[in-house]
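Our consortium's second objective concerns turning raw sequence data into structural hypotheses that experimental partners can test. To show how far this objective has progressed, the report includes one record in full. It was chosen at random from the queue rather than selected for favorable results. The single chain below, 387 residues long, was entered without modification.
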Amino acid sequence: MRLLHTSDWHLGRAFHRVNMLGAQAGFIGHLVTTAREREVDAVVVSGDVYDRAVPPLAAVELFDEALHRLADLGVPTVMISGNHDSARRLGVGAGLIDRAGIHLRTEPSAAGTPVVLSDAHGDVAFYGLPYLEPALVKDEFAVEKAGHEAVLSAAMDRVRADLAGRAPGTRSVVLAHAFVTGGQASDSERDITVGGVAAVPAGVFDGVDYVALGHLHGCQTITERVRYSGSPLAYSFSEAGHRKSMWLVDLGGDGSVTAERVDCPVPRPLARIKGTLDGLLADPALARHEDAWVEATLTDAVRPADPMARLTERFPHTLSLVFAPERAPDDPQVSYARRLAGRSDQQIAQDFVAHVRGAGPDEREATVLREAFDAVRADAAVREVSR
């Protein structure tokens, strides 16, 4: 069975101030063309269809168009909700849409109930595990302590139990939206840390033939059977080095997996350039970036006059301007933002405690801070669901 694995469309999202709807429509067209020309048997979409719980009307219309085009192709599609989606909104009408071959899986309670498709070698069971916010689903899965590994493990127990009751030789595909250990994050994914831990081990998914992951925006292979497709478009300059693609996966009759990357259209390349303003404007080696979306980091010791206006004369698609004067590490003018770069909320809070009183928090206090951050995230998740 041939699968086309994609995720993280983020319909309705802009890139800085650039409306990406046209590029997103171009990707949908590419997806449909690929499914037709490469004779795909099923499309799997592993969450974050939309960029927010209440998407703009234009994004909803594009999603509707995508569903109609896939249904018209006659290619079954299995889709789950991600942490950016409203599971309830995305799942509206799922029972009716199911009849058209579009299978929306947004309910955690249905984790062990697969969509079953067949080919010449027999059945393939597709299990949809929507994004599982631990604080909201811990009772559903009867776990004592809310955490990503605990709830995903419980969901996978249901998957394996159902699979064990099926005919021998039944192959299996799991769609999941999670941060799996070994994956490389970018700046455009929303933080899902709970209890100080965001990642879950790949071993959680043992016992199935292929795991189609969503959440991380870079296409990557965790194991030969566990893969992220990544987002089809770049949504931050941290993705400048990404090759945006989908996975074309052939699932053999014996459960063997072979995978090929299919490149996605690039609306405009991304470039990160760094140096003094005069240097950036004069460097002939940067000519290749003159038509790119540009993030420019200026290292001038003193902020130059009209930097954006001057940059856009050479790089008309400059979208981001960062000031990072080159200074010695012990220079008191080194920016607060640079000192915080790459640090988690928990680490920043603990550093603040140490700065205020001269000693960092003890184990009990660190636990209190962590629980406070988890409570805020859980409250935000509840409000998102109820909107």
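The partners drew two points from this record. The longest helix spans residues 363-386. The CA atoms of residues 189 and 216 lie 7 Å apart. Both points have been shared with the crystallography group to help prioritize constructs.
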